[in-house]
Amino acid sequence: MIFRSYCILAQKTARVLVSGRHQLPTCIWLSLRRSASSMAVCPVLSVQPTRALVDEKFQIVVRNLHPKQEVTVHSLHHSEDKDYWEAFGHYISDENGTVTVMEDASRGGTYTGTEPMGLLWSLRPIPGSRHGLRMRKKNVLSPMVVNISVYKGHMNQGFSEEAALATVVTERWYLAPGVQRVDIREQGVKGTLFIPPGPGLFPAVLDMWGGGGGLVEYRAALLASHGFVALALQYLTPNKERTLDIETGYFEMAYHILQSLPQVSSDRVAVLGLSFGASVTLTLAAYSKTAKPRCCVCISGSHVHPVNKTLFEFFQLMNQSLAKSRIDENNHVIWRDVILPIPTEPDLKVDVGKIKCPLLVVIAQDDQSWATVESTEDMEQIMERSGNRHLLTVLSYPDAGHLIEPPYTPHIRFSNFINQHNREKVIMLWGGQTKPHADAQEDAWEKILLFLQKHLYQDIPPEAKL
After folding, report:
1. Is the pTM here over 0.85, yes or no?
2. Which of the following CATH numbers is that of domain 44-173: 3.90.226.10, 2.60.120.430, 3.30.390.30, 2.60.40.2240?
């Protein structure tokens, strides 16, 4: 407020000087005019849109700078876990005193080059934060608030101690206006349902996360924001006994609950899973006699999964295999060797040759948590022999890690993780490098949406579409 008042005063002074030029000696008038002009340069920061879905790009422009002025554009987010995350880029204004983040290259900071969304995907905990953090939105009914600021000079630290030249508060939402959120507690199934606005009929997606457990809603909320009824399914919980007695029927029941909703086109249901959720997805697609998904998406998962076993039996086998896990020089746990070599025994992996629907597999070549590259190669061979290889589409990303999430989610190379079998807390190495991982997330999300739209909206009457 003080800085803004200063600028207004300077501009008024300049107008007074111009109107009173004839009353002053020329040398004094020119000197005062230069001073007033310098005082009147007030940087203006524009962020458009200030409120948007998390997968939408924003445009950041800084105007009214001096030509060729060095500035730092900085983002700051206070997470729901009360941790601060920041990202920043170093810019030099053009001859007009303007920085356009979408067009100009960052010379340094947490990202370099021309990166319109670098201020989001390169977010990292501020110095001195707790170790092993991972940013995850818990309450999708509130936005992710990000402060975008511009600072004088090229800064790398000490942002809280300096006054910003300008700041804009932005909101990033997983939930579009009008999307309904409904708790599901039906026939033993627990989850959260997200329904797009309008009468439907809508295609639907059963959304499952991985071995970290709990109820994770933000991807399902974002899917609903793009026109799909989405059910975020909870199936791994802190209650060990409740978790481990779940069998395939639980997932089939969740599928049928979603399928039977009045807003859902019953023959337009997909299943999407990440990590262990991908194993469940493949199992449903290959073996279920009642759940017949129209298409499936598997992210960072494997078909190496005991056939006809409960989760209890699966985790027993996994616990025995953890002897193959490694610890790196930073004491981070690496699980990718646990399922290597890929077994040849039919009862230890899903027979993907039985899958009859289109399947999109998304993998990262630097996945340190699961042997997804080797698994996918084996899946391709099985499907080739079975004659259904044409149903498989593979997206493989160099230098990306295990946690392929919606776009602009900060890359997390390692983080705290609780093993659902023995409740042991470790630091898990997920892998990936920040820039390639960010590119993978953006590209994969766009292609996942296109894949779902192609196979779920196909042949739906136009009046039933959004």
Report:
1. yes
2. 2.60.40.2240
